[in-house]
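Researcher: Please predict.
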Amino acid sequence: MKERTRLEQKIQAVREVEQILHDNTELIELGEAEGDNEVVEEAEKALVALKTKVDRQQLESLLSGEADSNDAYLQVNAGAGGTEAQDWADMILRMYIRWAEQHGYKVSLLERSEGEEAGIKSVTVRIEGPDAFGWLKTETGVHRLVRISPFDSAARRHTSFASVSVSPVIDDTINIEIEEKDLRIDTYRSSGAGGQHVNTTDSAVRITHIPTNIVAACQNERSQHQNRDQAMALLKARLYEAELQKREERAAEEHGEKTDIGWGHQIRSYVLHPYQMIKDARTQVETTNSQGVLDGDLDMFLEASLAHRLAPERERA
């Protein structure tokens, strides 16, 4: 039923485009025949807006990866630099939450580690909505911020880094086998706001997959059992994403392409001083509307990076 609903929505979107195109084409013909320039101008504006919509739908039609239609886990980790980097990680989290809200996606907190003075050391959220992973998968990498530090009494310019990792939420159609002997499970007390229950029991759970050293944690649920289930689901998602990245790297190597997948790669710079500029290192897309981007206007970057990533696939096809 979920797949049927998804397909029906996509078919309906195409039909709406066809109807808008048909209606406005007729309006232009009618307006020109009657000499009504105002009708012609309004119809032409509608067609320009339609082109933008069609361009986005064309990108959506390319979200055909194994897990592109799935929900997504998004993790943000502050880089070295203490309070500066932790505040930057918090800004990035806010940026993605705003983006998700703008697209009608639901955001749930799974784990959050607060900074000593401000910001966060790390956070993991689940973003639920159509093609959430497909849209966000190219956001994995290092994000760099240059600004005048609000924490520096001398008002000096600082450069901060934070890493983002995106994994697909695994559904029942994907089977990930994990052996118990390969796991180390730790429990600890949750931190942060959460009512009387928080900090009273060791309900938070951290699971480490020993062969890969991939870690997943959850502290948001009330019971240790619930947190363990959530952490295990997150661990499976990260193992699956690691396998997807290996496959993509192998495919790129086979076709003689350089790949920029991985945690160590800087994908975007956010410069707030001495000028305003946000630039993607992979696609060269840039904007001076830094506040808009930090408020969640990420679509120009997501669309460009998705098109950039899919271009080699279309050429091979």
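Model: The chain is about 45% helix and 25% strand.
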